[in-house]
Give the backbone structure.
Amino acid sequence: MLQRLKQADPRLITILLIVFVQLVGASMALPLLPLLAQREFTLSPEAITPLLASFFAAQFVAGPFIGWLSDRYGRVPVLIVSQLGTVVAFLMLVFAQSVPILYASRIFDGITGGNIIVAQAYITDISPREKRTETLGLLFASFGVGFIIGPALGGVLSSFMGPRIPFLVAAIAAAIVVVLTWRNLNETLTPDQRAANRLKGSVSLSPMAVLTNTPLLVVLSIAFATQIGLGMLQATFALYGENVLFVDINPRSTDLSIGLLLSMVGVGQVFTQLFLLRRMVARFGEGWLVVIGSVLRVISLYMIAAIPSALWVGAAIFLFALASGLLVPSLQTVLTNTVDDRFRGGVLGLFQSVASLAIILSTFYGGRIFADNPTLPFLIGAALNFAVIFPAVVIVIYLRRQNAEMASATHSPAER
């Protein structure tokens, strides 16, 4: 991986650093939000998960618009504005004295939070088509390193300095990202490209264009189903830790233990990018990696539900992260190959909105499901990931046909 980074475009190094700092802050603070809401605002699990869902609801509405803006006005200015929104949102959590302020923070961050959407669009701008999965994998590696450091650091800070300190540190990290973006990142879209994209309809994905693009619909359906499993995990894992895994220990130790367990997300993602993704893309191709990732997610979510032991749950989280590291970059690469390159920002925004809709539903209802049975959210997630295996095989067939058509197009009429 270090050799790949040495040979990489300097802009890629900068965007990976930006995402890393952003993810350290977010992964440090947000897993602790349910515990803050439960302890300081006495919210029940049924009330906490709608709070978490409010972020994704706002992102669902704003996601395509953020991608559309980045296509028309450039990646860098949209990145800066979205990152400033994250700074403000974390500061609101630091000083929140009421539940409405908690909601306002999450909604505001969701509206402005196009950071990852635009980072993905930036990376696809600077990556050759055949290298996109590998390059998006590096983005997930930076996620992974951030998730190794963030949850563990958040648990330590909350345990020893207070439950709001992680949100303050996250705001500082987001502010650092703003400075890094402003000083070190240059625009990937030329003025002519942005002007052309501002022409009416030039980069618009109309509803009819989406509905008549079968491969795109299949990819979005897989994203929707798999993200429900992720949403269930995100919404209820801290509560599962406090009420099942660590029910007999004090709150400080619980925070630290949950943070350490969640750091396995980062370990799994980094391991995947260092040792697996590049080799497995070359061996199997993106389509089969979507299938493999879905199967591994089924196994990992079932393990969490079936074996309520911290050691086994840590292994399951590692496996879930490994599965995601194979699944998501491959799915996003297939996504960008279903449309013309002019639509990259918009289609990634659409992908994010579909993913956000899935997380809205799973997060909103996750607390209610958890209240009925703490293991049920993970079992539902496992079932949905199992259900997408057949559509994932359809993706394999589509990619095989697309590659055959591209190979045929490279030959001259005389050769054919």
Summary: The chain has one domain: 2-409. The mean pLDDT is 81. The CA atoms of residues 236 and 391 lie 27 Å apart.
